[in-house]
Design goal:
11 helices; 217 residues
């Protein structure tokens, strides 16, 4: 029975992560599927690019909330018999399920975003100080470069260093997750890295773009 509860929590976390706020907001309020314009990505960045900040900022906040909420589900599905380390691993699995749901959403033909905002929500739930530190770093780099991809990749690569050396994290599962984040984000940004090297990556602006050929973040 305990395993059934654990599994149910993971499924619910995935379903929560699968809620495609960018797709639904675009279709309901603008008559646009954001995946058909801009980068073709169902994330907050492309939503801002295609629909503007008025639509994109709520999408971003909801995507962050999805990650946090997925981890929070442990309160309802984790049995008291779990050890502390087992509980940490379970929280990680819940957060990971939400990120997978965002990237491969069952409610949107498995075509989602890159999971950055949802990862931030997971980070806020599991390591709030480190997540805030890295978010500030992300914002600083974005302000200086105007490239979301550069900001995301740099922040992710710095994440395990911040977790271990700045905040002295001792939990092995959380260190493993931080290293995974540092590998996962650059992997999902392979096309962005190619465009950066080619000099064709588009810069980010909160202003809505009218053209539809953009292939940035």
């Amino acid at each position: 029975m305990e395993n059934l509860y654990l599994a149910a929590g993971v499924v619910l976390a995935y379903l929560a992560g699968s809620i495609p706020s960018s797709v639904w907001i675009g279709k309901i309020f603008y008559g646009i599927d954001v995946r058909t314009q801009g980068s073709g990505n169902a994330g907050a960045t492309n939503t801002i690019r295609v629909l503007g900040a008025k639509a994109g900022i709520p999408v971003m906040l909801f995507d962050v909330f999805k990650g946090w909420f997925a981890v929070f589900l442990w309160h309802f599905f984790a049995p008291e018999t779990l050890s502390h380390e087992q509980l940490v691993w379970y929280k990680i699995v819940l957060g990971t399920a939400a990120v997978i749901g965002h990237v491969y959403p069952v409610f949107a033909q498995f075509r989602g975003g890159k999971g950055i905002a949802t990862l931030l929500g997971v980070g806020i739930a599991l390591y709030p100080e480190s997540a805030l530190f890295v978010f500030i770093l992300f914002a600083l780099i974005l302000t200086l470069t105007h490239y979301v991809s550069v900001s995301s990749i740099t922040a992710s690569l710095s994440f395990p260093l911040v977790v271990v050396f700045v905040f002295n994290q001792q939990s092995v599962p959380l260190i493993v997750l931080a290293i995974f984040v540092a590998l996962f984000v650059p992997f999902t940004h392979r096309s962005n890295i190619k465009r950066l090297l080619n000099g064709t990556e588009s810069k980010f602006s909160f202003k809505r773009k009218q053209k539809t050929g953009d292939k940035s973040h």
